[in-house]
Amino acid sequence: MPTLLIYEGLKFFFYANEHEPKHIHVMKGGDFAKIELTTFKVIDCYMKPKDVKKALMVLEIHNSEFERKWDEYFN
């Protein structure tokens, strides 16, 4: 389970057996969400709205880095 970034309690990662479309998982405490990398669409969400908003902000800043790491890991 490669961890991409930990920021203000948010952990961004993907699992070793992921599938398309490219997406990341975000956890904070026991809460989590799954977000597509290309569209920023929140697929699954069990997080507080303020944490999702922060996760999307971080994803916007680090999106190209996260996509590059996805490609390196799965290709």
Topology, please?
Layout: E1 3-7, E2 10-13, E3 23-28, E4 31-36, E5 42-46, H1 49-74
Antiparallel strand pairs: 1-2, 2-3, 3-4, 4-5
Placed side by side, the strands forming the largest sheet appear as 1-2-3-4-5
> In angstroms, what is the radius of gyration?
11 Å
Give the SSE order as H and E letters. Answer: EEEEEH
- Summarize model confidence as the mean pLDDT: 95
Main structural class: alpha+beta
First-last Cα distance: 16 Å
Query: Which descriptor suits the 3D outline?
Result: globular
Domains (count): 1
Number of helices in the DSSP assignment? 1
Short structural description:
This protein has 75 residues and is of the alpha+beta class. It is built from 1 helix and 5 strands, in the order E-E-E-E-E-H.
